[in-house]
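Customer escalation, tier 2.

The customer says the design service returned an amino acid string that "doesn't look like it belongs to this structure." They asked us to rerun it and document both sides in this ticket. The original structure tokens are below, unchanged.
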């Protein structure tokens, strides 16, 4: 259900319709009727004299012809429609007919309506051949064996009793972090010495099975915390600033340093941007040696999580509190991770970039926060992850003003349907954009033009597109020119100025061919094919364009390829009808 909800957030061009639990014809008809704006469609859907699949076909087809959003039908908790049969589950009779009708109507009309099903159980159903199955599961099988082979207590040659290994694995239930904690428990007798050795391990595991939440947070942590002195407590508390496992160098810097000057001395001496006295360096060296000693002891006692790549993390299971200098710690953490994971690393994960950004926000380091935010949100926007992009932009703008972040916020807001706020943020980004950044200014104007076009201000949109086009020509942005010409052509086509639209599409296609932008070519070919077939009834030319578009989209594995394939089918049908 959580995954389905996230998919719905991204599929903003659909109208979501959700059922929870039992599905039958009456509930389907009632729910869809509420979503239909036209009285004739509501009456057609409620007609009891017509078979359900034909009623759905009529509704889906006419809704598509009217240009309304396609439905995204979410069938949640679908296991309530299942019944066990032998070693599997099958659909109950009512649900069988409804789901068959839905799938048939969508496929028969070649429309963009889609179905998402969430179910606790897999089930047998002939129409599932048209669905993509996405299972969700914990570590098991080969993945679980691989994880356990890296843990001392669970590897084949471990001295820990097999019964205790099995009990601990069952308790972990495929959770990798809990497996790591249980590995420490099984292998480190000192951490549980008060319980009297190996028999106490078995006792603790049994108690964890009875009350896992309380004992995982109290008993396990209590046995470990007995080994902590004041110096180690301070070190671990400072390490809480990191939520992810971080390189040992980063962890050591943060738990050792007490100011930005310390960090400069430790990690940025190569830049020699600041000078420090010999006494300071001696003090820093002493702190580093003490810190390394504490780190080794904490690792030996299982008080620090150690990743396969030797990264370190303070487990949240330990009842520690963040020190009062949290902002300073965040500054130190953001700077050292930015160097290690961004400037010096060949690549970094999304999770690592988010950690840098989180620390930069907490430490109010504007430059780092802005740089990471722009990189992440550019990536997310291309993949329709607009909700996440919006939240990250808003969080970044709380500590600083930046026109590029404001622009990405506007893009995300518009895709989420927040048109007025998006327009205001586009305008703010445009006002703040410096004159010398012509590339970004042209992009902002282009996107603002798209908003105006979609909200009905066609003349305003054309004027802005022309302004954007002029800027892109000045800076020789060929691909940008092609994109703007493409959008202008769409406006012309929608106003019935077909010849002007085709000329603009052809110009856009030529520019995209110059820079080898095959995705741009595919989208323009799609329009040229559709216009040739539907306006001029030149079906052969239209099919030729559409097939070229389809081949490109298949090559780049674009989901748009399926839509073009449906256009090809429709044009082919139009051609066949005309010949008859």
């Amino acid at each position: 259900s959580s995954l389905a909800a996230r998919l719905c957030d991204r599929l903003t061009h659909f109208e979501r319709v959700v059922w929870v639990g039992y599905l039958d014809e009456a509930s389907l008809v009632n729910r869809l009727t509420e979503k239909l704006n036209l009285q004739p469609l509501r009456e057609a859907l409620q007609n009891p004299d017509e078979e359900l699949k034909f009623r759905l076909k009529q509704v889906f087809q006419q809704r598509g012809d009217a240009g309304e959003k396609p439905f995204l039908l979410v069938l949640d908790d679908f296991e309530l429609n299942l019944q066990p049969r032998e070693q599997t589950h099958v659909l109950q009779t009512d649900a069988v007919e409804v789901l068959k009708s839905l799938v048939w109507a969508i496929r028969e009309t070649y429309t963009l309506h889609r179905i998402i099903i969430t179910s606790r159980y897999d089930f047998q159903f002939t129409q599932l051949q048209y669905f993509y199955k996405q299972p969700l599961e914990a570590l098991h099988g080969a993945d679980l064996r691989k994880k356990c082979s890296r843990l001392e207590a669970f590897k084949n040659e471990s001295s820990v009793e097999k019964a205790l290994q099995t009990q601990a694995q069952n308790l972990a239930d495929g959770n990798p972090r809990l497996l790591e904690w249980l590995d420490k428990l099984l292998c480190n007798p000192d951490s549980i010495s008060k319980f009297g050795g190996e028999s106490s391990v078995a006792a603790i595991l049994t108690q964890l099975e009875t009350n896992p939440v309380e004992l995982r947070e109290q008993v396990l942590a209590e046995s470990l915390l007995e080994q902590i002195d004041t110096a180690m407590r301070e070190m671990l508390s400072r390490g809480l600033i990191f939520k992810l496992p971080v390189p040992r160098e980063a962890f050591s810097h943060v738990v050792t340093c007490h100011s930005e000057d310390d960090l400069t001395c430790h990690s940025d001496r190569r830049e020699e941007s600041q000078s420090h006295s010999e006494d300071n360096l001696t003090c820093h060296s002493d702190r580093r040696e003490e810190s390394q000693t504490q780190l080794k002891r904490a690792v030996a006692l299982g008080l620090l999580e150690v990743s396969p790549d030797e990264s370190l993390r303070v487990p949240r299971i330990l009842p520690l509190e963040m020190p009062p200098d949290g902002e300073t710690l965040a500054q130190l953490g953001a700077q050292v991770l930015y160097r290690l994971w961004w400037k010096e690393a060949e690549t970094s994960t999304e999770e690592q970039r988010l950690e840098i950004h989180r620390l930069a926000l907490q430490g109010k380091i504007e430059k780092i926060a802005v740089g990471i935010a722009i990189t992440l949100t550019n990536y997310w926007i291309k993949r329709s992850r607009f909700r996440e992009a919006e939240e990250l932009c808003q969080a970044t703008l709380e500590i600083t003003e930046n026109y590029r972040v404001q622009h990405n916020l506007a893009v995300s807001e518009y895709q989420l349907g927040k048109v007025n706020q998006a327009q205001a943020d586009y305008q703010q980004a445009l006002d703040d954009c410096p004159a010398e950044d012509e590339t970004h200014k042209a992009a902002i104007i282009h996107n603002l033009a798209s908003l105006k076009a979609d909200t009905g201000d066609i003349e305003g949109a054309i004027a802005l597109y022309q302004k954007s086009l002029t800027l892109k020509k000045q800076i020789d942005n060929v691909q940008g020119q092609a994109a703007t010409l493409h959008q202008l052509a769409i406006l012309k086509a929608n106003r019935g100025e077909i010849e002007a639209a085709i000329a603009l599409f052809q110009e856009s296609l030529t520019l995209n061919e110059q820079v080898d932008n095959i995705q741009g070519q595919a989208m323009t070919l799609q329009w040229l094919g559709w216009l040739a077939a539907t306006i001029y009834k030149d079906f052969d030319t239209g099919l030729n364009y559409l097939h070229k578009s389809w081949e490109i989209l298949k090559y780049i594995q674009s989901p748009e390829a399926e839509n073009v394939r449906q256009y090809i089918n429709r044009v082919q049908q139009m051609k066949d009808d005309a010949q008859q």
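Tier 2 assessment: The sequence is consistent with the input. The CA atoms of residues 73 and 149 lie 43 Å apart. The first helix runs from residue 2 to 10. Sent an explanation to the customer and offered a walkthrough call.
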